[in-house]
Amino acid sequence: MSRASDPADEPDSAPRTLTPAERIAPSRHDPLVAAATRPIGGPIGAHAAVGRQWFWSPQRVGLAMAVLALVVCWFGKASCIQQYSDSNGVHQLDWRAGRPFVAMCYSDIVPLYSSEKLDDARTFPYVTSWQEDSQTAENQTRYMEYPVVTGLFQWINAKLAAGWTSVANAGWLPGALPVAIYFNISAFWLALAWLVTVWATGRTTKRRPWDAVLVAISPLVLVHTFTNFDALATAATAAGILAWSRKRPEVAGVLFGLGIATKLYPLLLLGVLFLLCLRAGKLRAWSQTAAFTVLAWLVVNVPFIVAAPRGWWEFFRLNTLRPMDPDSLYNVVSYATGWVGFDGVLQKGQTPTVLNIVVAVLFLACFAGIAYVALTAPRRPRFGQLAFLVVAAFLLTNKVWSPQYSLWLVPLAVLAIPRWRPLLAWMVIDAAVWAPRMFYYLGVDHKGLPAGWFLGGVVIRDLAVVGLCVLVLREIYRPRTDLVRLSGDDDPAGGVLERARDKVTFASFRRSRTEQPVS
């Protein structure tokens, strides 16, 4: 059973403003970072004039490194927007001979341009429908399959691409295939979104601003920033966490609401905040955040719920119908054992009922375990710690783990456990899974890899994430091993939770039961 935090350890007074010399320099404390700095002079000296540089602050260094990483990511995807002239002299996208998989440049952005009918000027998301070929007797009516913010983001970029093409045809701008222009416009905005993620994480870490460099140069950034549109959600989520850390629950709620309208995973953070605010007796701040989250989500979604309910529901319908992805642990179990208990082989349009129930039960069990941790730990866990655990549990138990989903974990992992070596090890492993994935999709008949190689990489990635979860749990139950708290902070992302006394713990529940008078 847990005890309430010692009031002496967590005074109510707000922490004073930090001086530059009080900030943690990883080159002094982390052997990996110290070794990496040797080519540029080694770790910062004890008598260095920290904070005297007029321009190159840790924040700006991190953003500059992020720009370089994003440029590398764009070049990695550029092979998939090259074009060629066919026998009739018509320019075509060069995806011949499995180029997206051989060059490992695949991005969902490119095929979605045509599959979501964004190349048709007459379409509008959730209102326009089309017929998709089906294995059943009748074709299936389809709509935009993404949440509202992501769907509108794609449509606006398609309109910008059409405008660029018109100006280019007049000779005022360089021209290319519309899909290539669309990809580049989308990549520009996604790059800005990731820079917001880096900026917000760096501002949240307070005493450890250099940890944001891990977000900036993560190997996952090099591979997946332009694989899909998830950088939009990470930006809204990271900015929402920053707003919460600055004791602005209303702003945090608006940002979380926009994030949920982009990808659903920011909804998990409301559950985390509820547990922490329950323990600290700060449910009023949580209620404000939850109310503004719902309000922001409704403002974005209600117009489409009213005007195009069937099109708006498409995202939820397809996620219900979606079978287990190759990246999921369920597929690993099925491949290794030959068991087809997760609804077996489904026809297109059938709901994997058993699989959906198993996914829901496993995640709820994990969340219940995390709730137990939140209320039993000897000291209230930090927001970043529980946020990482919940999102990691969601990904591990989910039937879908698209490769770009790993971007969700990057800023949360830096807030949860700023240990450079294990974080970089996980990021390298996770990013490396992209290679066997691409060659698995190439197919054995085209000199690709068999499924076992890819699924082996998936297992290693999942074990790496589980290992990070174990480290986080260890630091929760042994706060003296937590680098953030060793540096003098309580919970940099906690906002109203930072240095607050506990009001409710598991021990208090037990005490209230045992103290009831016997009738």
Number of strands: 4
Mean pLDDT across all amino acids: 88
Structural class: mainly alpha
Principal-axes shape call:
globular
Strand order, main sheet: write it out. Answer: 1-2
- Quickly count the helices: 23
| Helical residue percent band | 55-70%
What is the gyration radius calculated from CA atoms?
Answer: 24 Å
Contiguous low-pLDDT stretches (5 residues minimum) are 1-17, 509-519
Main sheet attributes: strand count, strand direction, barrel closure:
2 strands, antiparallel
The ordered H/E elements are HHHEEHHEEHHHHHHHHHHHHHHHHHH
Strand content: under 5%
Organism: Amycolatopsis echigonensis
Subcellular location: Cell membrane
Membrane topology: Multi-pass membrane protein
Main location: membrane
Fold and architecture overview:
The chain has 519 residues and is mostly helical. The protein has one domain. Helices cover 58% and strands 2% of the residues. It is built from 23 helices and 4 strands. The protein has a two-stranded antiparallel sheet with strand order 1-2. It has a two-stranded antiparallel sheet with strand order 3-4. A hairpin with a 5-residue loop joins strand 1 and strand 2 (91-93). Helix 17 packs antiparallel against helix 21 (451-477). 43% of the residues are buried. GO terms for molecular function: hexosyltransferase activity. One of its GO terms (cellular component) is plasma membrane. Belongs to the glycosyltransferase 87 family. It is a multi-pass membrane protein.
